[in-house]
Amino acid sequence: xxxxxxxxxxxxxxxxxxxxxxxxxxxxxxxxxxxxxxxxxxxxxxxxxxxxxxxxxxxxxxxxxxxxxxxxxxxxxxxxxxxxxxxxxxxxxxxxxxxxxxxxxxxxxxxxxxxxxxxxxxxxxxxxxxxxxxxxxxxxxxxxxxxxxxxxxxxxxxxxxxxxxxxxxxxxxxxxxxxxxxxxxxxxxxxxxxxxxxxxxxxxxxxxxxxxxxxxxxxxxxxxxxxxxxxxxxxxxxxxxxxxxxxxxxxxxxxxxxxxxxxxxxxxxxxxxxxxxxxxxxxxx
Length: 285
Prior knowledge:
single chain, 34% helix, alpha/beta
């Protein structure tokens, strides 16, 4: 079965980016001139995803408006003869079929999956965190989907992090030969860490994971964690794999420093502004 649906978790409050996120969803913060969420959606569309299911909350209307047609703006651009801008604005609204669901009143990154369960029922799907970017030559989601379509392997994206940073992430324990997942340890000490591979917000899941998640008790912080369901799936003898980014890099944007790093990484590779920006950075004191 081909993967045509993706669930994006976008119900977070962006507390670490206040006050910028007081009235603007963190996923709408710009990476140069595109919102974070648009880059995520473009990655999914490049992978052949047709239905984009965003799990939101009450203050995410700007996000929904961004992917809708803006008739007044389109008319103004047409009247002004700004055809390039008009073409781009129309493309955003036509990239995919957008579906919006309010998140259930519960905490944890497993909740968006349950909220969207009726729409992805009995189908494999991609699960994505809306503030995680993967900058790669070929869409990382496309890399994952192509692997799945060859083998039907469920998987989670991972990337190596410095040893002194393993206590910030979920670290995977894997069979190095087969890349099968043996377990995930949340924020281990350096001594406890089974590897330096951190998991991040790109996963291919299925109905069995949903069924397990429905039975999974809340965990750390009284929240429902998707990794707890994946761990149980593995414990039951099922195969789950890890997928490292090829020719690219995972970039988180959830805090001011990493958000700025991600913005700069995209900006310096822009043909129109990259060289001038790099020269400006070199001259900073």
